[in-house]
UniProtKB/TrEMBL annotation:
Residues 28-57 are annotated as: Disordered. It comes from the Bacteria. Keywords: Acyltransferase, Cell shape, Cell wall biogenesis/degradation, Peptidoglycan synthesis, Transferase. Residues 46-56 have a biased composition (Basic and acidic residues). The active site is at H337 (proton donor/acceptor), C356 (nucleophile). PANTHER family: L,D-TRANSPEPTIDASE, L,D-TRANSPEPTIDASE YCIB-RELATED. Pathway: Cell wall biogenesis; peptidoglycan biosynthesis. This is Ig-like domain-containing protein. Residues 252-388 form the L,D-TPase catalytic domain. It holds the Pfam family YkuD.
Length: 417
């Protein structure tokens, strides 16, 4: 063998030997690594498996979301759970005042049992367990809508009351409403009589509801306010969630005729009494039109200065501190009331008042036998008093509860929906 061939052979043998050594070295290293790595992987798998077993499958959801503001004060707060049941829920104000609540029978949900306060921060902590008894926790904090960012509607008549056939549902909002359609859609008024009821906006703050003709006597009217979360104006939300019902009494409509100076009281279409009256003088005529009794006072003060009747010294042309049996017919000061200071001879003969309708009465409102006392005792808030032949203009529909002075087409034209 030549030297060159022998060198090549030695080199090949050396390379092969080196390769074996290298392979042996790698094999030994891998065996050790595999042994060590196998042990670490097995341990990690056991840790992961144990962790998985310890994690509850119960999934808790709290509404409103954590960090919310302008939250509802009514039914917008709730805790629910899936893949488990609630074991405890606590709710309190930021100051630590507890809020009562109740977990449902199936333990799938929780709600507070009362209305929340406006402009208040609340905190909720909830715990649930899955089928294996593993617990899950969730926390949230939110702030309810503030008075500055909410509106309410003050309504009449009152829940549970009995009123006359002319009583509209009148709602006065404490903030101007620009999204009138949205707000009106959140309000429904219905009658057991089946009468169609339509809303009419007098301005941005007042919405009244009525049927085409007076309510059916003996019917029940239901008002539902579903305004919670309704945006009435930019950044201003409703908070009311309420149902109101009231009864319509007998159909009583009284017709005041300033020309004949009498009032005919009709019940269910039949005249039950004719009463002599004294309406507004030629200088201070009484408004004409259909008017609704909105308030009743056994005695009240009437000061002329409050309605523009003043003397040169600025004092009222009259100031009677004990006007008996007074019933309001307008916001501007029109009343039908007892009169004890005028001569008995004026009733049925002369119109002498500053615009009111006067009936004969006695001082102190204690005599049940006077015409004024009888009419007062037999009248309901919501009864209609129709005034005619005064020579004055028809009263404005929004001056009191007097929307009946709009015909049905004009009334419906004021609806936003």
């Amino acid at each position: 063998m030549t030297d060159s061939k022998r060198r090549k052979g030695l080199m090949a043998a050396s390379a092969l030997l080196g390769g074996v050594l290298v392979l042996s070295g790698c094999s030994d290293g891998n065996a050790k690594a595999d042994g060590d790595g196998g042990s670490d992987s097995s341990s990690q798998a056991k840790v992961d498996e144990a962790a998985a077993k310890k994690t509850s499958e119960a999934q808790i959801k709290i509404t409103p979301k954590d960090g919310s503001d302008n939250a509802s004060i009514n039914n917008g707060t709730a805790v629910t759970v899936s893949k488990g049941t609630l074991t405890s829920v606590s709710m309190q104000t930021a100051e630590g005042t507890a809020v009562a609540g109740q977990i449902s029978a199936d333990k799938k949900s929780w709600k507070p049992t009362g209305q929340l306060q406006r402009a208040t921060t609340y905190k909720i902590a909830a715990e649930a367990a899955d089928s294996e008894g593993r617990t899950a926790h969730e926390n949230a904090s939110f702030t309810t809508v503030s008075p500055a960012n909410s509106f309410i509607g003050n309504f009449t008549p009152e829940d549970g009351s009995t009123v006359g056939v002319g009583m509209p549902v009148s709602i006065n909002f404490n903030k101007a409403i620009t999204n009138k359609a949205a707000v009106q859609k959140g309000i429904t008024v219905s009658s057991s009589s089946g009468q169609e009821v339509v809303g009419h906006w007098f301005n941005a703050n007042r919405l009244d509801f009525r049927p085409e003709s007076y309510w059916t006597g003996g019917s029940t009217v239901t008002l539902k306010l579903d305004l919670d979360g309704v945006e009435g104006a930019s950044g201003v939300y409703g908070v009311q969630q309420k149902t109101v019902t009231f009864k319509i009494g007998r159909n009583q409509v009284s017709i005041v005729d300033a020309k004949t100076k009498t009032m005919k009281v009709t019940k269910d279409g039949k005249t039950i009494r004719t009463i002599p009256i004294s309406a507004g003088s030629p200088e201070n005529k009484t408004y004409q039109g259909q008017m609704v009794i909105s308030e009743k006072f056994k005695e009240t003060r009437m000061d002329g200065s409050t309605v523009g009747f003043t003397n040169d010294d600025g004092k009222g042309e009259y100031d009677i501190k004990d006007v008996p049996h007074a019933m309001r017919l307008s916001s501007s000061g029109t009343f039908i009331h007892g009169n004890y200071w005028g001569a008995k001879s004026i009733f049925g003969a002369v119109n002498t008042s500053h615009g009111c309708v006067g009936l004969s009465d006695t001082k102190g409102a204690g005599d049940k036998n006077t015409p004024a006392a009888w009419f007062y005792d037999n009248s309901l808030i919501g009864d209609v008093v129709v005034v005619k032949n005064t020579g004055d203009k028809t009263i404005a529909p929004d001056n009191g509860l007097n929307g009946w002075n709009l015909d049905w087409a004009a009334w419906k034209a004021g609806s936003a929906i």
